[in-house]
Amino acid sequence: MTKKRADNTLMRTINRSLILRHLRTADGLSRADLAGRTGLMRSTVSSLVDELLAENVIHETGIAPSRGGRRGTLLDLNPAGGCAIGVEITSQAVLVLLADFVAQPRWQQTITLADHDPAVVIPQTEQLITEALRFNAAHDTMNPLGIGVGIAGLVDTVDGTLKVAANLGWRDIPFKTLWERQFRLPVHVGNEASIAAQGEHYLGAAMGYTDFVYLHISRTAIGAGIFINGELYQGMGGYAGEVGHMVIDPAGERCSCGKRGCWEVQLRAALKTVTGSLEQIKKQPNHPRMLPVITVLATGIANLINIFNPQLIVLGGPLGVALAPFLATIQNTTADQITVPGDSMAEIVVSQIEAKACVMGAVALILDDVLRQQAW
Ligand SMILES: [Zn+2]
């Protein structure tokens, strides 16, 4: 291919992707709206739209309201434009979900894990993926675009290998290689918190934000997914976001990693004073027993705000979501500890997709990749 042709192809791919991403986040746009929003020429938009319509990736949904001139046909992503499979693996359960091109779930199934032996759990998970693909073939016959996998552990995102999942007792499982061979689909693997951050960015609390930190908080661990300039920050080996082992008290409790006073071990210690279920305590947002928990959380969150100056902090994971009644207290306690100017203080919110953040993030990972690269 000559350089000029290669440049033209690249430009076309970028422009197609631009149109698709505008259609994804809007509720129906005409060709004129698209030209206005993307800055592309009307003729370029028309030609690309014709191409995307022919591929069934977008469809016409109605007529735009009149604004004096000719009324345009509204365009939107076609839900049947393709499907993605999301897989979430935690120490408690495996969840497999099939979603259409607009990330609406079409099929899902969970297995509760009694046994953590990967020789048992992995074939069971593969069975669920096969069932999801069969369901699609029998009902919607959408083009399968890929499998996204979110797993609680350290993941090498470059080669898609789970390095260590301490809670499952798993090591060195090359999910990407295994499943790309078996299912003949692209497979992306990521750590639970990073993947959930993708989910919040694609369709949850962080939609439209470019700089935010998603925190997956459970009673025993804290992980983060960090977005910088609209992209997930992965780090050199893909391990970024291990914020739970940020030391907040060098004289604190001993952590499983060998250090003292890691953020997550201090949280665990603070939670010991919280007797009664979170459900009971949630009904009393000013409950004094929650103060040590809030202080520990605010210290770590303030560190993250001082380092990243994000627009938003999203609290997710079972404990993070349960903290909704305490948001104002967390926000105030954090604000006391930040050094960035007060008007640059991040807003702290709770996950909008809660329990499904990770599996929806796994779906989003595939759909976003397709929308960006148009790789089919
Ligand atoms: Zn630690």
Explain what this protein looks like in three dimensions.
- With 376 residues, the protein is an alpha/beta fold.
- The chain has three domains: 3-77, Arc Repressor Mutant, subunit A (Orthogonal Bundle), CATH 1.10.10; 81-196 and 357-373, Nucleotidyltransferase, domain 5 (2-Layer Sandwich), CATH 3.30.420; 205-352, ATPase, nucleotide binding domain (Nucleotidyltransferase, domain 5), CATH 3.30.420.40.
- The chain is built from twelve helices and 15 strands.
- The chain has helices at 3-25, 31-38, 42-54, 118-139, 175-183, 192-203, 263-271, 278-282, 291-308, 317-322, 327-335, 357-373, and strands at 58-63, 73-77, 83-89, 93-99, 105-112, 144-151, 154-156, 161-165, 170-173, 187-191, 212-217, 222-228, 231-232, 312-316, 347-350.
- The strands form four sheets. A five-stranded mixed sheet has the order 5-4-3-6-10, with helices on both faces. It has a five-stranded mixed sheet with strand order 13-12-11-14-15, sandwiched between helices.
- The longest helix is centred in the first third of the chain and has 23 residues, at 3-25.
- The chain binds zinc ion.
- Residues 245, 255, 257, 259, 262, 265 line the site of zinc ion.
- Zinc ion (ZN) is lined by residues 245, 255, 257, 259, 262, 265.
Give the arrangement of secondary structure elements.
Elements: H1 3-25, H2 31-38, H3 42-54, E1 58-63, E2 73-77, E3 83-89, E4 93-99, E5 105-112, H4 118-139, E6 144-151, E7 154-156, E8 161-165, E9 170-173, H5 175-183, E10 187-191, H6 192-203, E11 212-217, E12 222-228, E13 231-232, H7 263-271, H8 278-282, H9 291-308, E14 312-316, H10 317-322, H11 327-335, E15 347-350, H12 357-373
Parallel strand pairs: 3-6, 6-10, 11-14, 14-15
Antiparallel strand pairs: 1-2, 3-4, 4-5, 7-8, 8-9, 11-12, 12-13
Bound molecules: zinc ion (ZN).
